[in-house]
Amino acid sequence: MTTISDKDKKRHFDLTNVGLRAQATATGLLQLCRELQRANILDEEAVERIKVAIAHEIEISAPRAIISQNYRQDIRNRLDQLFAGEGNIGSADALNFETADEQASSRK
């Protein structure tokens, strides 16, 4: 598991202040990545670094109570599907928003 750095947190606040949180921006980024991969300019390692940066941003934005290993994995799985161009990734309601305590008590 990677940790979120101060640099990641600063970028989060900078992006929020500029207003770059719209779906249109995310759609443009996905399309740009696909085009750069198709042109053999962007390799898989670069795409992975992009997905890590996005995942960190999502984690920074999430309420502390819902951050868990399953939440992080759900984010990564969905990002993998988005970057692969898979059509139906499902609703965000399917993300695991349980806290570690809630997960432990639901297993009992």
Strand portion, in percent?
A: under 5%
Looking at the structure, what is the overall shape? globular
How many helical stretches?
5
This entry's quaternary arrangement is: single chain
Count all strands and give the number. 0
Number of spatially distinct domains? 1
Give the CA-CA distance, first to last residue.
Answer: 27 Å
Sheet/helix structural class: mainly alpha
Helix/strand order? HHHHH
Radius of gyration: 15 Å
Task: Provide a compact summary of the structure.
Helices cover 65% and strands 0% of the residues.
Strand and helix map with partners:
Blueprint: H1 6-18, H2 23-38, H3 44-61, H4 69-84, H5 100-106
Helix pairs in contact: 1-3, 3-4
Task: Describe what you observe in this structure.
The chain is mainly α and 108 residues long. It has one domain (6-106). The chain is built from 5 helices and no strands. Helix 1 (6-18) crosses helix 3 (44-61). The chain is globular and about 40 Å long.
Highlighted features:
globular; single chain; 108 residues; mainly alpha
